Amino acid sequence: MSIWEYANPKKFIATTTPLVPWVMGLAIACLVVGLVWGFFFTPDDFRQGSTVKIIYLHVPSALMAINAWFMMLITSLIWLVRRHHVSALAARAAAPIGIVMTLIALITGAIWGQPMWGTWWAWDPRLTSFLILFLFYLGYIALWEAIEDPDTAADLTSVLCIVGSVFAVLSRYAVNFWNQGLHQGTSVPVATGERTVSDVFFVPLVICMVGFGVLFLGLVLIRTQTEIRARRMKALEARMRS
Amino acid sequence: MMPDLGNYAAEVLTAYALSVGLLVGLLVLSLRRSRKVSAQLAEVEARKDRADV
């Protein structure tokens, strides 16, 4: 069996529909456990005080904001190379989720930054590239809405997605490229495994990261199904008019 | 059993309220649009079936 079978819209909907309740259930369970654990049952940090509790929202949302764009990049490339409509619609479906994740990361970062850095905002490399990523999300969504022909819209948004990927990469690695910024390095470096977060904060943080990731997956499935149905509806209406 | 958030209670509570609000809003809007489009598609398919007959 080939993965490309799922590029068939009917097959995609038939396969994912029974999965959605399980995925969403897992996402909500992880988010409730992780956030309740982090908010109620973790101590204050000796330096950050109770603002450390914002980490359970900020880190997973920032992670998913960048990963959502990479998922859109992969599905956009699949569209450009293989012309599978489901992949273009999955990219479209992911964008509003990605923009909400980006917004949460920006808001929680600003709220944390005010008491800790003494400012809501700094033109720091990571913050700036993240803001540009937010603007790319806005542009991506606007472009889909602005173009009538869905194939042309998919082509142009795919190109925009490729260009915007530069800022997704910069958002993740800006602290490694430039060291003059305020933003600290990653708390959970995957490559080295040398994390700087104590276990007492790390376990609920990982649960929240899993929760945000699975929530993203569930929402992408729901929204992709919606986009497939909306596309079919437009096609049927056009056929009936002609 | 609200934890003592000290001097930063406003910041922490605002961050949680806004984030949870945005996530719930996204979920509700996604589900609502999904239901609406499904119903509209069913209606269009029914119209098409009637037209075909």
Automatic annotation (TrEMBL), chain A:
Domain of life where this protein originates: Bacteria
Keyword annotations of the record: Cell inner membrane, Cell membrane, Cytochrome c-type biogenesis, Membrane, Transmembrane, Transmembrane helix, Transport
GO BP annotations listed: cytochrome complex assembly
Subcellular location: Cell inner membrane; Membrane
UniProt keyword Cell inner membrane, yes or no: yes
InterPro entries listed in its UniProt record: Cyt_c_assembly, Cyt_c_biogenesis_CcmC, Cyt_c_biogenesis_CcsA/CcmC
One Pfam family in the UniProt entry: Cytochrom_C_asm
Signal peptide residues on this chain, from the entry's feature table: none
Membrane spanning stretches: 20-41, 61-81, 93-113, 125-144, 156-175, 201-222
Membrane topology according to the record: Multi-pass membrane protein
Gene Ontology, cellular component aspect: plasma membrane
Transport keyword on record: yes
The Cytochrome c assembly protein domain, residue ranges: 11-183
Gene Ontology molecular functions: heme binding; heme transmembrane transporter activity
PANTHER family associated with the record: CYTOCHROME B_B6 PROTEIN-RELATED (PTHR30071:SF1), HEME EXPORTER PROTEIN C (PTHR30071)
Entry's family note: Belongs to the CcmC/CycZ/HelC family.
NCBIfam families xref list: ccmC
Record function comment: Required for the export of heme to the periplasm for the biogenesis of c-type cytochromes.
Protein's recorded name: Heme exporter protein C
Native organism: Octadecabacter ascidiaceicola
Source lineage: Bacteria, Pseudomonadati, Pseudomonadota, Alphaproteobacteria, Rhodobacterales
Automatic annotation (TrEMBL), chain B:
Membrane protein topology class: Single-pass membrane protein
Main location class: membrane
Keywords, alphabetical: Cell inner membrane, Cell membrane, Cytochrome c-type biogenesis, Membrane, Transmembrane, Transmembrane helix, Transport
InterPro entries linked to this entry: Haem_export_protD_CcmD
GO terms under cellular component: plasma membrane
Transmembrane regions: 12-31
Cell compartments where the protein resides: Cell inner membrane
GO biological process, one term: heme transport
NCBIfam families: cytochro_ccmD
Family the UniProt entry places it in: Belongs to the CcmD/CycX/HelD family.
The protein's role, per its UniProt record: Required for the export of heme to the periplasm for the biogenesis of c-type cytochromes.
This protein's name: Heme exporter protein D
